[in-house]
């Protein structure tokens, strides 16, 4: 009889000072500050500083941190050359994982160092360069020139600028920056756990990031935001939501963007994203996506809220990213651009009190089986 906890539900496998989640009450805090306050008042850069240093920066500290981040916006030239060799129909998450991994080859400052300061510096550089990887690939696959980063711009603004060759409006920059804040960290989720496991072997941060990006890609994790958009596109119009949902619920189909291992109440990130999606949908003439989403939510509420299934961070992210003009297959990379900060922070925490993460498995196969030579099988 196996004693394994399926999916490690409820298993506490690490300590963290970065984010606190109360899944029953729907609370998320970064270093004790409610996510709503950060979404309203902070910036992504300040939030990353908070996560990595466990306190808000002074003006001078934030300026120095921002300057350091911007100094690493450029991609090494061979990475750009590499991106140009990728198939144009490659999935951006595969591109991101491959290019982040390849960054190790052009790190002349001991890519394998596991000193906390080195991990932090390398994490910062990976975070600074990831937007350039995605933007460059998107432009190359569309037959457009690659746009060099603009170091006078914020993380959010620089990404949208490199993607569109046009500086975003203040509203767009703020909306995207808010998405980055909301996605930065979230306890021991699957990709962060993956990263911590890799860091615990004293492997390099490029391996950590590649593994974590791979875990995030899955449709049960960060890939769900693309799944939501596929659902909205498949439904197509508001009047078809009822029939789609009736069929989906009758067939016990999982609806992307709903449910969470930890939240049994409304995900506070979804609360914020819902408001953002509604506003952006109005501003950009995409109201049908918001209305369809809202109707799906209402139907799900009737059907499964009693089971603790509510919209998660991915549900209204889909409409938000669509309204920001992002292509569907860039949605999950957007999650990664932000979560790199959380992965780096967790790995620094892991290394500060490291012990190899190595759980056990209950063996449930046979014993005493005779070896049969191949010619007798
Ligand atoms: N739609 C319909 N029913 C659902 C959903 C959903 N999205 N999610 C869970 N349920 C139901 C299950 O069918 C199951 O019902 P049952 O007890 O009658 O069999 C029950 O809720 C428990 O579901 P599990 O899959 O066992 O819950 P678990 O904690 O393992 O999974 C997960 C959590 C993977 C997030 C799940 O809710 C899911 O697949 N959601 C859809 C994908 C998604 O949105 N993922 C993003 C999560 S947020 C993030 O990673 C950033």
Bound molecules: acetyl coenzyme *A
CATH fold name of the largest domain, please?
Answer: Citrate Synthase, domain 1
Kindly state the number of beta strands: 3
CATH class categorisation of the largest domain? Mainly Alpha
Structural classification: mainly alpha
Radius of gyration: 22 Å
* Strand proportion: under 5%
Helix coverage percent: 55-70%
Cα distance spanning the termini: 30 Å
Largest sheet geometry: 3 strands, antiparallel
Element order, helices and strands? EEEHHHHHHHHHHHHHHHH
Mean pLDDT: 97
Give a structural overview.
A three-stranded antiparallel sheet has the order 1-2-3. Helix 8 runs antiparallel to helix 13 and helix 13 (268-284) runs parallel beside helix 15 (313-323). It folds into two domains: 34-169 and 185-220 and 338-352, Citrate Synthase, domain 1 (Orthogonal Bundle), CATH 1.10.580; 224-323, Orthogonal Bundle (Cytochrome p450-Terp, domain 2). The protein is mostly helical. The chain has 16 helices and three strands. It has helices at residues 35-41, 44-53, 59-71, 77-85, 92-103, 116-141, 155-164, 170-183, 190-200, 205-217, 224-235, 241-250, 268-284, 287-304, 313-323, 331-352; strands at 19-22, 27-30, 33-34. The longest helix has 26 residues, at 116-141. Helix content is 57%, strand content 3%. Residues 7, 189, 220-222, 224, 254-261, 304, 307, 309, 312-314 line the site of acetyl coenzyme *A (ACO).
For the structure shown, list the relevant keywords.
Citrate Synthase, domain 1, binds acetyl coenzyme *A, 2 domains, three-stranded antiparallel beta sheet, mainly alpha, 377 residues, Cytochrome p450-Terp, domain 2, globular
